[in-house]
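User: For documentation purposes, I need each entry recorded in a consistent format: the amino acid sequence on its own, followed directly by the corresponding structure tokens. There are two entries in this batch. Please keep commentary to a minimum and don't merge the entries.

Assistant: Recorded as requested. Entry 1:
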Amino acid sequence: MLTIIGKRWSALCAAAAGLLLLCASPAIAQSAPGSAPQGEVIATASGKVEGFIRNGALEFRGIPYAAPVSGEARWSLPQPAAPWAGVLPAMHFGGACPQAARYGLTERSDEENCLTLNISRPVFAAATPRPVLVWIHGGAFVGGAASLYRLDRLARDADAVVVSINYRLGVFGFMAPPAGTSGAGHVLGLEDQRLAMRWIKANIAAFGGDPENITLAGESAGAASVCMQLQAPEQTKGLFHRAIIQSGACGTPLRTLAQAEAFAAKVAKEAGCSDLACLKAIAPQALIAAGARAASGELLAFAPFTGNPTVPLATLDALQSGQVLRVPVLNGFTRDEMRLYVGYDVQGGAKITPETYPAAVRAIYGDKTDKVLARYPLKAGERPAETLGSLMTDFMPGLGITHCLMLESGRLLSAHVPVFQWEYADRTAPVRGVSIPISPEPGFNLGAVHSAELNALFPNFSNTSAMSAPDLAPASQALADVIVATWAAFLRGNPTPQQWPATRPGAVMRFEPGAIRPVDAWGEYKCDFWRSEYPAFFGQSAKETK
């Protein structure tokens, strides 16, 4: 078995040779075949946990890292979990944090005491500590869960210890907490993440991980969470040593604390609550529904807010002033991010035709519509939903999952830390049943949409606890193997600026089947145009971007 693992690693490094990666062989212990444990008991500072072998990895699920946060503890700052006696059988995921079902795909949960984490590592012990990857799930800050992601692939193929965490969502984690709670003035979802990181830092060595080599990674809202942790260097120094930002712009404008508190008052009014006792007693789904009414369809109504102890500075101010944790960053996104949301709209009954295309553009870009249509005309034979999705992907005001704002994040960060940029561009990988419901048929090519890359990293990711997405086709799987090898190299301190061709702020390494190459993404996605039209969303001091 060890020979097979070694050959597989060599093959992945050979496949990635065009990227000039420095693929050092992972340290694999010389255990005899058949000596793998059927379970292992590990002592943490909180108590003993017993892991189980699944999918060729040793896994520990549902480990509590925080005390309960329900009832009178609702909106409290997270506190460490009380130690337990005996051995905790860590074989089941903890419940997802409270959320409503969304998009006809994601699942409802009412479990407030949800602050747990999961750990996966190769079955065999290693001669030296393994790098650690901590995964923060996405879900627009109102949905998602650590339990949706199979960690075994990254653990085995990257030879790493991989951890996923739950954190409070929506009205419980990203609404400004009411006065009279210990969490008032803080962003509790981010504080949960920090407590989890402190638990990991203190305990991961017992699982064979290196507490001095931790990479914090996330996608979508998870990527934005990584941004927020980077932008609070005094609070997070030493908790992680590298960062992977996948589909999230670190400079997205966010509410201030005062604005977030005004929004929270609106939520309380919608809930029919005039005092703290009512807010603490109301059922989770009733409070979530009140939050949805207050949000009025705003996609990022529950994004983090700034100007508080959790996130001290406004996002662009932090990036431009260099108030960021000085760690290397892998900055990634997908080629067709926003086609996902156009697909949701079409599945919901929206009609995007050549006749309605200009009106759809005007609804987003207002008085700039004529200039935008001149740059993004609907050409003969094009499907208007695809054109609209590509336009929205390049730039939308204030939305942090658009190309030019994510590239701007990379540009601003690169003034202070090493930044490596990549784009997932596999337009043949499955999307229906992964990022969007299988039916109804959207009727246009979705492409490499927002979250489409997750199935390359976490097998069978379907945005549901069933993990039921189809396996990747051979060409997509071969590309996924190279992506995992690239992430594995980054976890180990490679690539370096000398070894990664796409070092300029506007350049990215595009990953698509059969063609991995650097491209000028800043130019391709018309970012100079968008910067000139919407300067407030970009940094004040422009650098060379081509």
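Entry 2:
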Amino acid sequence: MGLETARELGRVGLAGMTAFVITLLLTPLVRLTAVRFGWIVKPAESRWGRRVVARLGGVAMFIGFVATTALWVPWERSVLALLGGVSLVYVVGLVDDFRRIPPYAKLLAQLLIGCVIVLSGIRLASVPWAWVSIPLSVLWFVFVMNAFNLLDNMDGLAAGVGAIAAGFCVLHAALSGQWVVATLAGIVSGVCLGFLRYNFPPAKIFMGDSGSHLLGLSLATVVLMESRPHSTQLVSILAVPALVLAVPIFDTCFVTVQRLLHRLHPFAGGIDHVSHRLAILGLSPRQTVIVLYGASAALGGLSVFSTRLSPLPAIAMWLLVLVGLILCGRYLARVNVYRLQPAETPAARMGSPPVTLIETMLLHKRRLVEVLVDFGIVSSVYVFAHLLRFEGALTSHLQSLLVRSLPIILVGKLICFAGCGLYRRVWRYPDLSDLLAVFKAVSLGSILSSIALLYLWRFEGYSRAVLIIDWMLCLLAIGGSRVVERVLDEWISAASNQESVPVLILGAGETGERVLRFLRLQGRGTRRAVGFLDDDWRKQGNQLHRVRVLGTRERLAAVLAEYGVREVLIAISDPPGDLLQHVRQCCEPRGIAWKMVTADVTDAV
């Protein structure tokens, strides 16, 4: 690292620290003022929180951003345009915080502010045609502003994600030597971290529309300022804004699609965001925002990695990221957060067929999603198989062969997937037969695709090792996409166990195993098995679905005290009388409920 680089990095760090300190000191003063004058947010049906919290945190964020920028950043034309745009959007947000502005009036104001920024020269420089890049840039500013406005739906979420996104913008700008942009991004990150001190769950103050609009516009502008006109890798340039800001973009797109599918206004407030659905599934507010912080950091890391890739591998990586987001969206869409309107109830709609082809297709939207996911997996896996075989060096000849053969691979495999019944199964609870079906479908698809390549081109120029690697990667990816819902269920169940009732199961046999599975699938977030007790001493220390056998019945009293058990389930067919007497003597004095569970385990919860 040269002396000049070290000096500039120090300048970026000092600017970020200045913004952090100013915002950190101003936020409690703004909070006290807001509480004194009654500028607070009260609980409402369209909001997640159920506490009275001060608002107008955007005031501290605005002062921290403008003061630090004036102190540390040279007064260039683009910087002045950013300060002017931030000031305008802050005023619009502040007015909206005090007196609600109609959505279309606010959208018009956002479009005008976006035009002001674009006219100053900040736009998608990688697009050579001005008549295309200018409207796209304006729409980009409006979209990101609204994305952060929608993301500000849970304590600490928008500020934390904004800090992470700005941090990756610092990294991108520093790697390309754009130190003015790096300083601006460092200031945004410092502002977010200073405000996050009082906004992390449970929040003491909200940023409001003034803060979320300021955060969205500043990040959208910084990302575009990083684009380099002399770069020819358009895919790599687009990866920066798409992946750095992937969490707010995904949340906005997901909520909009879900509301349109349920015939709701896309701009209306509600508790149907990604964060709300994770919380409904069982995560605490802190766990929810930390999970989304992790997702933002992971996608930001991929944005750095993608800029080092050639276009074809970058597109393949994008497809895999898109597949992952689609799978997460499909999983979260299971959470029912919408109330049926009278005209939408099943009784009201019975006997009336869908009126459009689109509505007919939406009846099978889950199958359509599976086909799209498989399309993305097969395409990207085929590219990565070539990268592994040729150690990342794809010549132009290899790329032409890959592009020529990819349609054959896609058609052959998707036909085999459909023929083997992968699109006729329910994948929420996969078993061994489902995994065997995946193995058969992928193997048959690889064989038929190989035969097609042999028949068409006699394998001239094609590597047979690529086809073997492709089969293995495809088997793992297709199988993994089918079990991802089960994995997410297990992960959320484990994460939400802190609030659940600890249960002890007597009997580590077949009935006990069924009870454990029933608790995990149907009683997620309400009850958790802390262990088994079984009279067969040889089972002690063994695990059944990752739950240990803690000993025999003699350890019942000790286990009840050690694990804070609140309920005991006897999963033994025809249990002996002395066992029931022993359970009664240990449980009833401690106020612990106990019951017998028959082969029909539905009475376990």
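Summary note for entry 2:
The first strand starts at residue 40 and ends at 41.
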